[in-house]
């Protein structure tokens, strides 16, 4: 019994060291080159100081040659950077819902964003039924996990199971979002934030194991009481960045 206890302690220490190592990993040359891409629009570059894309990609573990599924890429801020970071041997699957794709002009902004990035492919899919022709190395969602809880057909448990299914063994699920500590999922539709613990619990329920958290995007001055896009805090919310691994 004593040996078992010591083994569990040692395993916990190893996980802590590994998480710290991931959080402090410096950006690779490929990532730095991707962020410096001259094809990025000035309005995206202006957001870099707050979003710290080089450090975040390094934390997520993005590498040349990776296959990445990016859930709900919006206007393509990260899509462009990810496409350059994985290089010509990599692939980015920009996943959008049928609702978004079916709206008139719903994909115009994204299509314009990826026009010069031939390794990006738009995939239209219900998130809970997501599938890929071959397993991916990383599934990426930035500032929209909370929205997966909103709407009459929300199925976060199904989404997380689908993410687990499309990842290769050892693959990473990266989740970044606006923080609302202690609220569970009650603020997802009102403040467009979510409790970090709710994310940990939901992702773990799908079979993932924790693989590190980063304080890069934390803002202790955020009172967590305003909507994430409120002018008083928009762009500078307290955000969490988490990695989860498929065993």
- If you compute it from the alpha carbons, what radius of gyration comes out, rounded to the nearest whole angstrom? 18 Å
The biggest sheet amounts to: 7 strands, mixed
> Going by CATH, what is the homologous superfamily?
Vaccinia Virus protein VP39
Q: Roughly how much helix do the residues carry, as a percent range?
A: 25-40%
What is the CATH topology?
Answer: Rossmann fold
Spatial order of the strands in the main sheet? 3-2-1-4-5-7-6
Count up the helices. 10
Secondary-structure map:
Blueprint: H1 2-23, H2 29-35, H3 42-45, H4 48-51, H5 53-60, E1 67-71, H6 77-86, E2 91-96, H7 98-102, H8 108-113, E3 120-124, E4 136-142, H9 156-166, E5 167-178, H10 196-205, E6 209-214, E7 239-245
Parallel strand pairs: 1-2, 1-4, 2-3, 4-5
Antiparallel strand pairs: 5-7, 6-7
Helix pairs in contact: 2-5, 2-6
């Amino acid at each position: 019994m004593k040996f078992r206890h010591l083994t569990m302690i040692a395993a916990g220490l190893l996980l802590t060291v590994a998480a710290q190592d991931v959080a402090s990993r410096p950006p690779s040359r490929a990532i730095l080159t991707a962020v410096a891409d001259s094809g990025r629009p000035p309005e995206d570059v202006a957001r870099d100081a707050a979003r710290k894309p080089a450090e975040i990609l390094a934390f997520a573990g993005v590498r040349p040659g990776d296959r990445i599924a990016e859930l709900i890429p919006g206007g393509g801020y990260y899509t462009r950077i990810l496409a350059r970071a994985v290089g010509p041997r990599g692939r980015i699957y920009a996943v959008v819902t049928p609702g978004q794709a079916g709206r008139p002009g719903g994909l115009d902004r994204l299509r314009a964003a990826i026009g010069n990035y031939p390794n990006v492919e738009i995939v239209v899919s219900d998130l809970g039924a997501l599938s890929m022709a071959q397993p991916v190395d990383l599934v990426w969602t930035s500032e929209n996990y909370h929205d997966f809880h909103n709407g009459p057909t929300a199925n976060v448990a199904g989404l997380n199971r689908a993410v687990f299914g499309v990842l290769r063994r050892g693959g990473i699920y990266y989740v970044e979002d606006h923080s609302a500590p202690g609220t569970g999922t009650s603020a997802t539709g009102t403040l467009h934030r979510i409790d970090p613990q709710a994310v940990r619990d939901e992702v773990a329920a799908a079979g993932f194991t924790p693989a590190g958290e980063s304080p890069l995007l934390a803002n202790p001055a955020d009172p967590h009481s305003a909507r994430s896009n409120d002018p008083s805090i928009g762009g500078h919310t307290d955000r969490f960045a988490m990695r989860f691994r498929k065993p």
